Amino acid sequence: xxxxxxxxxxxxxxxxxxxxxxxxxxxxxxxxxxxxxxxxxxxxxxxxxxxxxxxxxxxxxxxxxxxxxxxxxxxxxxxxxxxxxxxxxxxxxxxxxxxxxxxxxxxxxxxxxxxxxxxxxxxxxxxxxxxxxxxxxxxxxxxxxxxxxxxxxxxxxxxxxxxxxxxxxxxxxxxxxxxxxxxxxxxxxxxxxxxxxxxxxxxxxxxxxxxxxxxxxxxxxxxxxxxxxxxxxxxxxxxxxxxxxxxxxxxxxxxxxxxxxxxxxxxxxxxxxxxxxxxxxxxxxxxxxxxxxxxxxxxxxxxxxxxxxxxxxxxxxxxxxxxxxxxxxxxxxxxxxxxxxxxxxxxxxxxxxxxxxxxxxxxxxxxxxxxxxxxxxxxxxxx
Amino acid sequence: xxxxxxxxxxxxxxxxxxxxxxxxxxxxxxxxxxxxxxxxxxxxxxxxxxxxxxxxxxxxxxxxxxxxxxxxxxxxxxxxxxxxxxxxxxxxxxxxxxxxxxxxxxxxxxxxxxxxxxxxxxxxxxxxxxxxxxxxxxxxxxxxxxxxxxxxxxxxxxxxxxxxxxxxxxxxxxxxxxxxxxxxxxxxxxxxxxxxxxxxxxxxxxxxxxxxxxxxxxxxxxxxxxxxxxxxxxxxxxxxxxxxxxxxxxxx
Lengths: 383, 252
Description:
The complex is a heterodimer of chains A (about 375) and B (about 250). Chain A contains 16 helices and four strands. Chain A has helices at about 10-15, 20-40, 40-65, 75-90, 95-115, 120-140, 145, 170-190, 195-205, 205-210, 215-240, 250-265, 270-305, 310-325, 330-345, 345-360, and strands spanning about 155, 160, 165, 245. In chain A, strand 2 (about 160) and strand 3 (about 165) form a beta hairpin. Chain A is globular and about 75 Å long. Chain A starts with 9 loop residues before the first helix and ends in a 22-residue tail after the last helix. The relative contact order of chain A is 0.13. Chain B is built from ten helices and ten strands. In chain B, the strands form two sheets. A six-stranded mixed beta sheet of chain B has the order 6-7-8-3-9-10, sandwiched between helices. In chain B, strand 4 and strand 5 form a beta hairpin. In chain B, helix 3 runs parallel beside helix 6 (about 155-165) and helix 5 (about 120-140) crosses helix 6. Chains A and B meet through helix 1, helix 8, helix 9, helix 10 and helix 11 of A and helix 2, helix 3, helix 4 and helix 5 of B.
């Protein structure tokens, strides 16, 4: 076990508490940089989606994890970023310009959503953000002169400084990675400065934050704007990755996927956003695999246990019908959320911390280390 | 002109007069205690000063400035800090980051500077840390610096709340029952700290307190309230002997 002796206030501020972090994150970065030359094109494509989802996850963490304002409307912010890019592309606006414009516009719209959200908390805020997402979805479908309605919009190949960057090229992957890394570094900077502390203060006690001089309304709007802007940036990359966008891609289910990203990853640390993104991107091919292969496997098992070929065939077609039911994916996501909230509220990153501590303290690990405490003195809190 | 002044302050909830035309003044550098039975309107006065409630009528002045209409977050910026009766700390943060929030009114950096963590932000952070460290030393909080609030005992939390208020370098501090829930020893410590705050840091103290021994030890003046009205005002001994106060506490 390592003991850190702090001798300077700088030790509290720096991003990497000790050299071990520099080494491990350096290795991780090196691996990510050589990934395009090692991994198959399918995995590279998944990795790009991980970067995009993780960027949105970080954005959502700022709002939900650190400021405590739940949002089920982030698919709408992603959509606004994506459509801004697609629309400006039609007028031959260069990539850096529409990339920034998408972030700026989404940020402004995020701030506008933040204002009505000032008076709402908890479940009511969730409902408000869902309605916002539905409104945006509807606008995208109806405002045909700009969005092309339900027919969707084609997104041209990204061109950076006159060079075409196809969506499956290593350069595009590096671009997504750079956006993710910059987002994470910016967020970490924010969290170690007064604004980040004000966010956390609002999450834990608005009354106390106010009495310490935090303008709660202003900081909530700021949090909404920052979160939306980052999601807008991710939206541009998302549009380029898909090369075609239409309103039905930005549904409530996508917003729920983003919530799953941070819930499963862990809402207290930025690591959670990345771990959750890996989880959500990789569960989709896994579910497809189950859907394709499970009916056959189950039929095979039933045949081994003495079912007649006719019965086995019957079972196979029934299971296959069940597996291709509409909304089954949503149900599975729901079950995953419930299981994580019940059994692993700190998420995957929390589990990782527990495993790490187990080996650091071996053989002295205490199971109660991470046990959540009940607090009994919360009775008459000022709201 | 007095340093802090409340004039005919009233707070009515429908027909209930929680605070009824209360006037008092606090002189710079004194410790003024507000006492009174439960429901007398003591905490309501604090909530009026820190603008959690809006007064039904009356005005509040601080350093000759009318602060009745200021938004709540501006009250702290003016140099009025407070603690809460039931402890309002940021549960899921460390003691250090709780105290750093207390520094919020001194933060001057802009959002974009913070995103890039420019040298100015870094310098500011170090300054905040140094100031916080002074408060930690003042209140003997060194063992708890990196602990999460949610794992700390009540008595320590009470001190941390005081520390957070002191971190904002207030001119006037409002203490809402600083000794509630503390044992005898911790109450002793608290009384020394309140005295030291006045003598060493030059903070003016306005406090609500039930523990009469603490009130007697630290207060320069005492105000007794009942049913939202001022019963008596004066030195601790005078107020305790006042017939109305005796009646309010013991029944006539």
